[in-house]
Specification:
With 406 residues, the chain is of the alpha+beta class. It has helices at residues 20-28, 66-76, 93-103, 110-117, 119-128, 142-151, 175-184, 226-232, 246-262, 296-304, 308-318, 376-393; strands at residues 9-14, 32-38, 53-57, 84-87, 136-138, 156-160, 170-172, 192-196, 200-210, 213-222, 236-240, 267-276, 282-288, 333-340, 356-359, 366-373. The chain has three domains: 9-107, 3-Layer(aba) Sandwich (Rossmann fold); 135-196, ATP-grasp fold, A domain (Dna Ligase, domain 1, 2-Layer Sandwich); 200-393, 2-Layer Sandwich (D-amino Acid Aminotransferase, Chain A, domain 1). The strands form three sheets. The chain has an eight-stranded antiparallel beta sheet, with helices on both faces. A four-stranded parallel beta sheet has the order 3-2-1-4. A hairpin with a 2-residue loop joins strand 9 and strand 10 (213-222). Helix 1 (20-28) crosses helix 11 and helix 4 packs across helix 5 (119-128). It starts with 8 loop residues before the first strand and ends in a 13-residue tail after the last helix.
């Protein structure tokens, strides 16, 4: 089917300031773009020249007032034909699916979205389909939790079902600690799960899928687990997995099985896995139907030449109604390093290696670099060097995060 003759109107939902490249791409593709955000970020430097209308709601996020969002968007739809709805943040994914169902607009619906937002639902679906996951239990029935901690050796992690990344995760080592935390949750206990903590290396696969076909899957390995970074501080780093290695082949196969099981039809995904230190097996940790945070999109762009935000925009506007074609992909290696910094505007001008292709400049009190090379060994060498230099020159450590951050 050919592209439509009349412009498509896309409603973008944003509870956090992100997704400028997606918005710019939609406008280049000829779409009419409406942004629905919240008042506290309405004056951020959105690409206003690419947005036809902006509306803002009060509150901390769009997910906090779902009924009001339905009423507001339905009111807009009286005089605007909304064709697509795109969430720019993980916390808006469920809101977008709710609106699609209510307004009968194409895109991922509420049932499938649960597998990409709810950490309990995605684990249960994966486990029931034979995918390897760490042992877990819903933190709702106390007898089941008690049986779990007595049968599954600790330590464990208590995880919120709906938070993004590693936010809100607590490590516990004894039954008393488990129930002290659970009791402290009050009526929110059912929104958590308890999971065996598996020591090992953590990986992420950032993918583009169209019509159930995975067209791009970029495999990366964290230098340190995100949970360690958020709870202990330090330098964040992630690098490309060696291409053609047994490690990459096993990870790609595991990832493909996961997306098929969870019912991914089209869009971008960020999925995380851990390779157990004791048994060498991959375990599924979590997935999300969005672009990965922490500048992972910039990392993928450095190694492949593709921007995940831009490709997501093209896929969302098409919704299978006319073909999406993946652009040519470059096959370099890349590494990303990011840290909190003591200075508001860190000066990295002394960092002069030619493999540096990106520097973090838009966030105060942050320092970040991306390296690109055709050589895996060279990227690893640069990561070792610059992690040490950044620790010495700039690193700052703050208390663990308690709310959403990119």
């Amino acid at each position: 089917m050919a592209a439509p003759n009349t412009p498509i109107t896309v409603l973008c939902l944003a509870s956090y300031f992100k997704g400028a490249r997606l918005i710019e791409t939609l406008k280049r593709e000829g779409c009419t773009v409406i942004l629905l955000t919240i008042e506290k970020i309405m004056n951020e430097p959105w690409p206003r020249g690419c947005i036809d209308e902006v509306f803002a709601m009060p509150g901390a996020g769009l997910a906090d007032k779902r009924a009001d969002v339905i009423h507001a968007v339905s009111y807009l739809a009286r005089t605007r034909k909304i064709d697509r709805i795109v969430p720019l943040d993980d916390f808006d994914v469920e809101v977008a699916s709710m609106l699609r169902e209510h307004m009968r607009i194409p895109g991922m619906g509420e049932t499938t979205v649960r597998y990409f937002r709810d950490k309990l639902a995605m684990r249960e679906k994966a486990h029931d389909s034979g995918i390897n996951v760490p042992a877990f239990v819903h933190a709702m029935n106390h007898d089941e939790v008690r049986r779990f901690v007595r049968e599954v050796p600790g330590p464990w992690v208590l995880k919120p079902r709906g938070e993004a990344a590693s936010l809100g995760i607590k490590r516990v080592s004894t039954e008393d600690e488990v129930f002290a935390l659970i009791d402290g949750l009050g009526d929110a206990q059912s929104f958590f799960l308890l999971e065996k903590l598996i020591p090992g290396d953590v990986y992420h696969v950032d993918a583009i899928t169209s019509e159930r076909q995975i067209l791009l899957a970029a495999c990366h390995k964290y230098r340190r687990p995100i949970l360690n970074i958020t709870q202990e501080g330090g330098v964040f780093g992630t690098t490309t997995v060696p291409r053609g290695s047994d490690e990459e082949r096993e990870l790609l196969a595991f990832h493909a099985q996961l997306l098929s099981t969870l019912g991914m039809v089209r869009g971008v995904t960020h999925s995380e896995f851990i390779r157990g230190r004791d048994d060498g097996r991959f375990y599924f940790l979590e997935t999300a139907a969005r672009v990965g945070g922490a500048h992972i999109a910039d990392l993928v762009e450095a190694e492949t030449g593709l921007n995940l935000w831009e490709e997501w925009a093209r896929i969302e506007m098409r919704q299978g109604k006319w073909p999406y074609e993946l652009p040519a992909v470059r096959g370099d290696y890349a590494g990303l390093v990011v840290s909190l910094a003591r200075e508001a505007r860190p000066d990295t001008s002394r960092y002069t290696d030619p493999e540096i292709v990106w520097r973090l400049t838009e966030k105060s009190h942050h320092v970040g670099l991306i390296f690109r090379s055709p050589s895996y060994a060279r990227v690893e060498e640069l990561m070792d060097t610059y992690e040490a230099r950044i620790r010495q020159d700039f690193q700052a450590i703050l208390p663990p995060a308690t709310s959403h951050a990119d």
